[in-house]
Structure formats: structure tokens, C-alpha cells
Design brief:
By secondary structure, this protein is of the alpha+beta class. Helices cover 56% and strands 10% of the residues. The protein has 20 helices and nine strands. Helix 1 crosses helix 2.
């Protein structure tokens, strides 16, 4: 049986892979067990290592490297996933998300200052407790630099972080479980701002406005601020695919696609709306007109990635109209200024032969889409790590701060996801591949984290001040989350998943986000998490240095 002993007790890369695989397998299995309707999900990857502490001779030598690589993989692919809608969210609720996150940070900071005097804990240790309670190692690095500047070694801060970090990891989960058990109503679990959203509206209108009669479609579009697409025109018994030079006549029936918030303006523009619901999922568009076909075509030619729809001239070249663009689960209006992305699905209306030519031009190769762009992912991770090492000097700060190995990659993922197509960078990844990468990265990161934290946890806690630090850290983790979480649920129209994302992002806690994703439906938690994570982490790094400057 020496070969089995060698797998676990001889430090090597093999030992690291075997132990981490065992932790993930046991943890993910335990995560499926539900007690009182609650399960930890992927979070059990860490807690299983923390509880058992895996009695091996030495911790795997590559655990730190594996942990950091998996964290980078998780945060970068998460940023890549939410990037396309990240900046748009600030025009909607992203700013409010960050204000609630700031509330969590301010409550925790105020508590840290108060507990310094109430418990008699020196600020040199309290700043470490705060970093551990909020699982923010970049903040600890900044605090250690600030402490060194005032003549403090920083060892007390590092030790306090090591003691409070494990409960900081799981404390957010306990707080969310508490909120859900006692304060969440059934309506709070319903998605109110789901990522799967249809921004378009389809309506049938009759041209009775005399100002439009005799004008071309191009002239009408240029003369109004409203954005719309006329997909077809019914004129007597004739069906037309309109072009820019098509002249409208009185009593023309138009099938119009527009944005939801501009639907009311369509009736004012054309003069009359036909009472018929064209927005039902059950409509068979190919049986409406025998001469026209509606087909969904996938943009799979890399050369078209990042081009505006108007630059393709599909209407002039092939005599077809693009009515809507399906990007992931979001339906967008196909305006000429819409920047297309690799993997977009275009709804095209026209004659079958014309659509065939357009299909050949656009690619429509589903097989090509299934091939992951691994090289672009590694390139993005490398650029993210480089971004995280850039020193940022702020007024009043003696030492520069950095985004680190978590902040840099998530910011780069967001940037590539949002602006990659404009630079003709193909960042498309299938939904299943993206989810697989995020789950794999998070599970292995948490396994390394639990193994690392569990090794010295008990020996540190039995120190005279250890339990006091653990108690203070647990309060700094749980109390701000509970207070702000309950207030957010009661005063804003956020679903519980969105609130969980805000809370996890404000605490820089990917494990708690994994729990939220496993126990709640929808992607709202990921969206709000990514919206608040970069700014929240940045503010905590600054606060750690401010506390040292004013209280040490």
C-alpha cells in the first residue's frame, strides 16, 4: 500500500492534483445535501478541506500556484461573461448597486473603528481582522505597506488576517442563509431584472399619417429620433420587403420592430395600430406570408466581428431585412449602428434564395462556434495580470495601490467582453464552456483556500487573543451584510439574487457567489457581483491604508 501513501504524503505536483481532486469531489458531493432546504453547493469545496484539514505530511508545494491560477481563471471568465452588458448596467441600476455595496463597506469600517475601542484591539491588528473578515488580501498588502511606513512590522495584521479569513469566507454564506430564512418573501425570489430579456417590441401599424404618404423609408427614418425596423409591408395582396428607397402609400400595413420604450411613439408616427399581439413565442413567422421566409442565421465569420450592421449592406446586396439580433439571451433591435459580435444570431426576413446568399456571407456555422477560443482566454488572463500589477498613486497615499491578481483579470475580462468586438477580438465562448470554466476555476480555488486556511487555523485560535480576533472578524463579516441586505430588500425593487450579488461583491467573496448561483435561479447575482466587485475592492484597499494613517 506504499503507492497509496505516496499519493498523499510525498510532496509533488502529483500529490497536489490528487488532494485537490479529492477535496473537490467530496466537497461538491456534500454540497448537494440539503438540510432544512439549504445547501452550500460549490462552497463545500472549501469547507470540506477546512473541516478535515487532510492529515498529510506536508501541504502540496504547488497549492499556492494552483489557487492563484484558478482564481484568475474564475474572475477573468466571469468578467468576460458579464462584460457585454456591464457598462450598460450603469445606465440602469449599476450605480445603485455600487451605492449599496458602499453601504456595506462603510458599515464594516465604522464597526472596525468602534470595536478597536470597545474590545481594546490595537488598530494594527484590527486592520488585519477587517481584511480577513472581508477576504481582501490586496487590502492586507496595502495595510502592511502603510504599517511599515509608520515603523510597524505588520506581523500582527497578517496573523489577524489568517485567523479571521476562514470565517470571513463562510460568514457571508451564513448571513445570506439567515436573511433568506427570516426576511425573504416568495416574491423576492422571483427574477425582476433577468439577464434573459427582450428589449424589442413588434407591432402592426397602418400608414394614415398624411405626412408620411409619398415619402421613402429612408426619409422617414432620418426625420425622426425613433429607432425602428420595417420588416415587411402588406399592400393590398402584395407583400414587400422594404428597402431605403421604398415609398410608403396610404393604408400600407407595416410590421414594425422597435424598442419597447418607443412602442407608443410608433402609433403617433404612422397614425394607427392594428390590435394584434405579435410578441407571442408561438408565432410561426414562415406561415404568415408564403413568399417570405424568416430565418435565424449565426454570425460565424471572424472578419465580420466588430462591424456595424449597416456596414454589411445586407438590404442592398441581398434584398433582405434584419429585424432583431439575439445575443446570448438578449434580443436587440437591429439598427444600422449596432456593433455585431461573433456568435450573434440574426433574424433575417426575405425570399428564400436571397436569405441563402446572406447565410453564405454571414457564415452560419454552428460547428465553428462550438470551438472554444482558448488562446484569447489565456491572452486576456495575461493582460489582466499585467493590469493588476500597475501601481496607482493617489493623493495622500505614501505607497501605491494595485488591483492585484483578482482585480486586474476581472477588469480585463469586462473590458474584452465589452469592447473586444470593436477591436475585432473574438472573445465568444459558448454558454456551457463559460460556465464550465467558471465552475472549475472556482471549485479548485476554494479547495486550495480551504486547505491553506485549515492548516494553521486551530493552532492560531488557541492563542490568548485568537478567539477575540475571531469574534470581532465574524461580527465584521456578518453584521454589515445582514443590515444592508435586509434594508436593500425592503427599500428597493431588487430580487434576492441581485442582493446576494451585491453583498458578495462588496465582500470580494467568490465562494459566497458560488453558493448564491447554486441555490438561486438566473444570472442576476453574477451581474450585480461583477458591477460592484472592482470598485468595492479598490475602496477597501484605500480604506486599509487610511485606517493605518489615522489610527496607528
Amino acid at each position: 500500500m506504499n503507492w497509496i501513501n505516496g499519493l498523499f504524503n510525498i510532496p509533488s505536483a502529483l500529490q497536489a492534483v490528487v488532494i485537490l481532486s479529492l477535496i473537490c469531489a467530496i466537497g461538491l458531493t456534500l454540497g448537494k445535501i440539503r438540510l432544512g432546504g439549504i445547501s452550500l453547493g460549490i462552497a463545500s469545496s472549501s469547507s470540506s478541506a477546512l473541516r478535515g484539514q487532510l492529515r498529510v505530511a506536508d501541504r502540496p508545494p504547488d497549492a499556492h500556484l494552483l489557487r492563484d491560477v484558478r482564481l484568475v481563471l474564475f474572475v477573468y471568465t466571469l468578467g468576460l461573461h458579464v462584460g457585454p452588458n456591464f457598462f450598460g448596467s450603469f445606465r440602469q441600476e449599476g450605480t445603485m448597486f455600487n451605492l449599496w455595496s458602499l453601504g456595506v463597506i462603510l458599515v464594516g469600517t465604522a464597526m472596525a473603528v468602534a470595536l478597536t475601542y470597545i474590545m481594546g484591539i490595537p488598530m494594527s491588528a484590527m486592520v488585519g481582522i477587517l481584511c480577513g473578515a472581508t477576504t481582501n488580501t490586496p487590502a492586507l498588502g496595502a495595510a502592511e505597506q502603510a504599517l511599515a511606513h509608520v515603523g510597524n512590522s505588520g506581523g500582527e495584521a497578517a496573523l489577524a488576517t489568517a485567523v479571521t479569513y476562514p470565517l470571513g469566507v463562510v460568514g457571508v454564506i451564513f448571513a445570506m442563509i439567515f436573511i433568506r430564512k427570516f426576511f425573504v418573501r416568495p416574491a423576492d425570489l422571483e427574477l425582476r431584472h433577468d439577464a434573459e430579456e427582450d428589449y424589442t417590441y413588434i407591432g402592426q401599424f397602418v400608414v394614415v399619417n398624411p405626412a408620411l404618404v409619398g415619402k421613402t423609408v429612408a426619409e422617414i427614418v432620418q426625420g425622426t429620433h425613433l429607432k425602428f425596423i420595417i420588416s415587411r409591408i402588406w399592400r393590398n395582396k402584395e407583400v414587400l420587403v422594404p428597402k431605403g428607397e421604398t415609398v410608403l402609400k396610404e393604408n400600407d400595413n407595416l410590421l414594425v420592430i422597435t424598442n419597447k420604450d418607443e412602442a407608443a411613439g410608433m402609433e403617433i408616427l404612422f397614425g394607427k395600430q392594428v390590435t394584434r399581439d405579435w410578441n407571442k413565442e408561438q408565432i410561426d413567422w414562415n406561415h404568415i406570408d408564403s413568399h417570405l421566409e424568416s430565418r435565424i442565421i449565426v454570425l460565424s465569420k471572424p472578419g465580420l466581428n466588430g462591424k456595424r450592421l449597416g456596414q454589411l449592406h445586407l438590404r442592398d446586396m441581398y434584398g433582405v431585412n434584419v429585424s432583431r439580433v439575439l445575443r446570448g439571451d438578449i434580443k436587440l433591435l437591429a439598427t444600422e449602428r449596432l456593433v455585431l459580435r461573433y456568435g450573434d444570431r440574426l433574424t433575417i426576413i426575405g425570399k428564400p434564395g436571397a436569405i441563402d446568399h446572406a447565410e453564405h456571407y454571414l457564415g452560419n456555422s454552428v460547428k465553428t462556434l462550438n470551438e472554444p477560443n482558448i488562446s484569447s482566454i489565456f491572452l486576456g488572463m495575461m493582460l489582466g495580470l499585467a493590469l493588476g500589477t500597475i501601481p496607482l498613486s493617489l493623493p495622500g497615499m505614501d505607497a501605491p495601490i494595485r488591483l492585484g491578481i483578482a482585480g486586474g483579470p476581472i477588469m480585463m475580462g469586462i473590458i474584452v467582453g465589452a469592447f473586444g468586438p470593436r477591436l475585432h477580438i473574438v472573445s465568444y465562448t459558448t454558454r456551457s464552456a463559460s460556465l464550465m470554466l467558471r465552475k472549475l476555476g472556482l471549485a479548485l480555488y476554494l479547495a486550495c483556500l480551504g486547505l491553506d486556511a485549515g492548516k494553521d487555523f486551530l493552532s492560531t485560535v488557541i492563542r490568548p487573543e485568537g478567539l477575540l480576533w475571531v469574534g470581532a472578524g465574524f461580527l465584521l463579516t456578518v453584521v454589515p451584510i445582514v443590515i444592508v441586505g435586509i434594508v436593500a430588500l425592503r427599500t428597493r425593487k431588487f430580487d434576492f439574487g441581485t442582493v446576494c450579488g451585491i453583498l458578495c461583491g462588496s465582500m470580494a467573496n467568490p465562494m459566497a457567489l458560488g453558493y448564491a448561483n447554486d441555490t438561486l435561479k438566473g444570472e442576476t447575482g453574477n451581474i450585480s457581483y461583477a458591477a460592484v466587485y472592482p470598485l468595492g475592492m479598490f475602496i477597501r484597499v484605500i480604506i486599509a491604508q487610511v485606517l493605518v494613517m489615522f489610527f496607528v
